[in-house]
Amino acid sequence: MFPPVTLPRSSQRVIRHAGADYQLQVAWPASPPPPGGYPVVYLLDAHAGFATAAESERARSHRTDATGVPPTVVVGISLGGERVDKTRRTFDFTRPGLALPESERQAGVAAPETGGAEAMTDLLTNVVMPTVESEHPIDTARRMLFGHSLSGLFVVEVLLADPFRFGAFVAASPSLWWDPDGIADRAAALVDRTRSEAPHVLLTAGSFEETLPPRLVGRPEAPEILARRQRRRMVGRIRDLARQLAPLTAHGGSARALVFAGEDHASVLPLTINEALRIW
After folding, report:
1. What is the C-alpha separation between 89 and 151, in angstroms, rounded?
2. Is 210 tagged catalytic?
3. How far apart are the C-alpha atoms of 143 and 72, rounded to whole Å?
4. Catalytic entry in 57, 209, 210, 263
5. Which of 82, 131, 149, 161 has the fewest beta carbons closer than 10 A?
6. Positive or negative CA dihedral for 261, 259, 71, 57?
7. Which domains does the chain have, with CATH numbers?
């Protein structure tokens, strides 16, 4: 039997927090840090993207002049265990009081337990970030928070609650359908109170998140899949939010909605990682 593959210049540990075990993974560049420290990506749901992000950074950061990707520390946070606990994950990335939309209930989706986002924010800002930034020289102006799907919703929630906690917020296929009206209201309030500085915001989705790819057309499950995708409006909602946040550009930030043609909810993740690494 061959030994397991290991990633050079990386570490992994388990952190117990709020009744659950989390994997903390860190990968760092070979090159020495710049005077201000490395940029850092805090990657949520890292069970699905940590190695991809780390290798994407390493493949391109040695030629920053050509690729636009600087040497960057990649930090992954994910639930521990061989399989992701979907119930706990939903709890972790939803704020207190957030209920499953009525449209989802009418479609037969079971209402999960929600409300753990405050504990997740505490883990991130009071445990993970101090740990990483005590071990690696970090440019605190170039911190990025990255999430996909439900953790992408969490990224948007953190942005709307505290836009200055990170220099960049990246949400790949964020589940904005959980609270579209509330998000719109808080986005408007964010723009109104942003005056002297602003973060960079990147929102992405795949074009097949609101329609069917050719391989599904005519299959028995196609009508149900299409109805769900059209109900959730993944593409339309990121475009709406990016338009709302467009005034951030007047204060040194940015707000972009990027739709990847021919991609779906899962396949946008590596493409978004590639785009996010050159956001600076």
Report:
1. 9
2. no
3. 10
4. 209
5. 82
6. negative
7. 10-276 (3.40.50.1820)
Q: Does the CA dihedral 36-37-38-43 come out positive or negative?
A: negative
Burial of 261 (0-12, 13-18, 19+ CB in 10 A): exposed
59-70 average pLDDT score: 96
Residue 92 has pLDDT above 90, yes or no: yes
Taking residues 46-61, what's their average pLDDT? 96
| Pick from 79-83, 102-106, 125-129: least confident | 79-83
User: Which of the four pLDDT bands, split at 50, 70 and 90, describes residue 122?
Assistant: very high
Catalytic-residue membership of 134? no
Which residue matches tokens 């109805």?
Answer: 227
Annotation marks residue 251 as catalytic: no
Sign of CA dihedral 119, 82, 133, 59: negative
Catalytic residue chosen out of the listed positions 56, 61, 149, 151: 149
Radius of gyration of the chain (CA): 19
169 conformational bin, left if phi > 0, alpha if psi -120 to 50, beta if neither? beta
Q: Which residue has the tokens 């972009």?
A: 256
* 20-27/10-17 β-pairing: antiparallel
Q: Which amino acid is at 236?
A: G
Q: What's the rounded Cα separation, in Å, for the pair 142 and 197?
A: 13
